[in-house]
Amino acid sequence: xxxxxxxxxxxxxxxxxxxxxPNPQHFFLHYEQGFELYMFISGAGSFSIEGNLxxxxxxxxxxxxxxxxxxxxxxxxxxYERIVLSFNESIMPPVMLSGVDLFRSxxxxxxxxxxxxxxxxxxxxxxxDLMNKLMELLRQPSAENEFVAKCVMVQMxxxxxxxxxxxxxxxxxxxxxxxxxxxxxxxxxxxxxxLGLDELSHxxxxxxxxxxxxxxxxxxxxxxxxxxxxxxxxxDELMRQGxxxxxxCFLAGFNSYSNFYRSYRKMTGKSPRDGKxx
Length: 278
Fold this sequence. Notes:
Layout: E1 3-6, E2 12-19, E3 35-42, E4 45-49, E5 52-55, E6 61-64, E7 70-74, E8 80-87, H1 94-97, H2 104-107, E9 116-117, H3 119-124, H4 127-138, H5 143-166, H6 175-189, H7 197-203, H8 208-219, H9 223-240, H10 245-251, H11 257-268, H12 272-277
Antiparallel strand pairs: 1-2, 2-8, 3-6, 3-8, 4-5, 4-7, 6-9
Helix pairs in contact: 4-5, 9-10
């Protein structure tokens, strides 16, 4: 049974659905405006997050923060079922948290790394039971159930933090993987600077052809596509903080407003003015 629920105060939304014939147009490159927990239930495929590829297994969970660009690759020949829980830091008033940062496991990771909680941990930690409890509450909507649902989410976040902080991080030390991660870190730290292929190939001691090939192999995106998406995301964040559109455009690294406008509209389906208001 599918479920789509939006909190009255816009602090979270949950979507549970099953596609008998998955539509590839639904699985485009994108980022979220909040934090996301994605539980894969059935089907086959993989999730690319900032250059790391995660193979999907039933009831595994991916945690994604607003700065992580990601894309889904699903086998279109199999039914596809998932639960997506998106929320922001307003799910609980700060006075109730006593300074605790519930979202620290989302925020304080390197981009694209340690995103996945494997199925065995989802089951043994109680996360699967908590997700089922959350669904049960939201299928019977009421003000009280919505509040209790938020308490369940707090428990889920606490469990995720406990898992993350007890985990020994395993890193892929291959030269190619390290180089891609270094590139991604450099690009994200320098979006307001020129980031052409010549500059990047010189900085990372690799030919432009090889650079383009290994970047696409690792991330699923071209370098230019990745940079443009990241710049649009940065401009979007700046505008939401009250920055004027033209100023946000240049602070995010675009060389003209017209280029920014086209890129923003292509990526989000709306104009920068609409995005600023939304």
